[in-house]
Amino acid sequence: MPDSNTSPTPNQSSIPTFEELSKQRRLLQEFCELHVSSVEFFRSGLVYRRDAGDPAPKKLKHITSTATCYGSLELCPDRFLPDGERPFAKAASEFAKKAITLKDNRWVSDQSANIYCRCRGLPFVVSKLDEWDKRIGAHLKAIFAQIKRDSSRLAIGEADVAKPKDDWYPPNAYHTYWTLELIDVLNDDKFSSAYKKLKLPGHESMIQWAKQALGYQVALHSADSSDLDSDQLGWSLAIYIRDPKTYQSKLAAQDFIRKAFQCLFSTQTKVGTWRHYAPLFHYKATGNAYCYTFETFANILRQALKPQAHFIRTVLKEHFDRLIKLWEYAKSTQTPLKGNPKRVGWSSGHRGNKPNPESWATASVFEYAQYLRRLVGIWAREESIATLNYKRTYPSITEAADKLVERSHIWTDPNLADRLRSMFINHVADARSEEIKAQDRLEPDEQPIGEEFLRSAIFFGPPGTSKTTLVKAIAGSVGWDYVELHASHFVAAGLTDVQRTADLIFRKLMELDHTVVLFDEIDELVRERDVEPDAFGRFLTTSMLPKLAELWEARKIMYFVATNHIEYFDRAVTRSQRFDAIIFMSPPSRAAKQSELRKILRHTYNLRRRITFSLEKKDVEGAEPSALCRPISLEPNRGKRDILKCKTIDADHVLFKFALLRYDELGELALHLRSKLGNRSVVTKKILVESLLELKDGSWRNLGEYDRYLKDPAYERRDFTKRSAWIVDNGDELGPKPPAVIQKRRDGTMILVAPVNDSKDLNVSGYVVESVKPGTIRLVKT
Questions:
Q1: Quick check: 480 and 446 in contact, CB under 8 A?
Q2: Which of 26, 117, 417, 515 could form a disulfide with 481 if both were Cys (CB 3.0 to 4.6 A apart)?
Q3: Stated pTM of the model
Q4: pLDDT digits (tens, 9 = 90+) for 753-770
Q5: In this structure, is residue 463 part of a structural domain?
Q6: Shortest CA distance to 462 belongs to which of 512, 500, 412, 527?
Q7: Which segments within 209-280 are labelled E, that is strand?
Q8: How many structural domains compose the chain?
Q9: Range(s) of the domain holding residue 754
């Protein structure tokens, strides 16, 4: 029967709330920050000893423990490392190269278990090698010899063919799991050809064996059998879910997996751990070797963190409290290590004569914690985005990029598309495979935005100038999620609860990553504190400042504000380290408007002849009403200023109205143009002015609107301590030592990084910079 100290089988799901997920995520993050210093504490005794000043390794020790430690350290994201560096990465490679050269009799654990040592140590060692080594083949033959010797044996256990069969341990899911992991490494392009030449037994029989073992253990657990073994259940389950194709769109397989997890958690003890079951093998000096609970669950969670493993993540979420309970058991059994309060370790408890903390046990606990941290972060992100105003952007990155270029044709800035791509897209865009990018999303504590790059901006300008469309296009161009928030979201629970609502919204935003957030038309929430008579408005502005700074500092999302009235914004909100740029979005350019008018005339009014316009941009700007607007600025009395703003523009300046027209007003203008064109094909200045006079915009497009439009560009600014990035389309031609301003993105794309606004301002010594398209340049040697 199961241990009497076990918890009862859960009869219903226990889905965590957002508050629970957020709280546990913070605690796990703090815990995982201890990872590197704790595991590194053991390294000098694990890997090899050196004499002072001697770079050559003296002695390699503990292959399996060292592999476990280095494997766990690789799970630590950069943000949890001292100064973001990975001092252990080179040492891990050195360890692997040294380990593979050792003689067979060194591939043992405490003078025992040579099969275990190979199964557990080789996956990491081989993964760090650059080329095939014939000794890999010898190790593989030692592992598979038991199957060749005994045809009825379908999986791997601690069975040395040099010893009598009576000394062999039966196959077990632990050894088999790590053998399958090794086979996966060997099927990599680097080694697949050499591995296939060995003609070893296929892995299909091992997977089938694991499926049968899993079914057997599910039956034993369901029957509360005294022979159940939750270790074997856990490891056979880890094997079964290694390939998501096993259960994707297969209801029977999913039901089987859900039941297996229920059985596994049914034997969890009240303190959070699992008892020992059958030993895997026997150490000569120290006794039986058992599965370690944290290693078991680390590798189960590892399978849940594959891109296509959404079903497994969903099932595990139902057991959230059980997973947290296991982690809390780890915290309750940790032991402080010497010399540093941020170092803690664990003993597996397997060896009664060695109760002190062990390197591999410590690494296994942290490995479990790192995977759990990632899972909880993913669940917190999912809960957040499900309750925020998530919206889809564009079907493809290409369509989003085209939309960004189309809507960047504005009246005041012909280089807007180049600016937006270089500021917010090129440094995070990624041309790697969708599977690799999906894998990146499974590390919610990654900081995809570099410290030197921009990640926030205010887009301001008249209504209808594509501010929202452009932010959505930025999200689509980088392939990130898109969330759109309005002032109504902050006051949804009523004015009395606005602080609590705002706090909750920003807590949810802090759980997001790889997301673009738009605060659309939130002018009332960010008004100047010294001129805002409403105490509520002043209070909300004050409460938002640290939240914006926290979002900016996290470097996990980009966020934008779209507003019509930049003059209302509190200066503390618009400063650096809250917003990196303030960008004026003027109405569509002359060419964009003329192109759209031609489309409307052709499709709506069936004008098949080509329509041309006989006016230039300078003609429109020559009608600028700056003289009419000047009295508004000079008038000190607010009431009188408002009266002046209400005046309409006179006929002499009506042509300037064309500059302010939005896309949604062009349909009405096309209607008037059609009636005045007759059979003519040229829109003259006279026809355009007459059509503009008939537009029904007098109730809102008054002199104040023109005055604000003329003044708005003065609000533009950007933080020039932050860099923009341009893709260098001939980066591969620059040789092994490109200019210092050139960086390589993770996908291998070369980018030029500089603190300037436009590609026309780039200056690279020894090269001429040619613009290829928005956000892309070519360097030509002078």
A1: no
A2: 515
A3: 0.91
A4: 999 999 999 999 999 999
A5: yes
A6: 412
A7: none
A8: 4
A9: 723-781
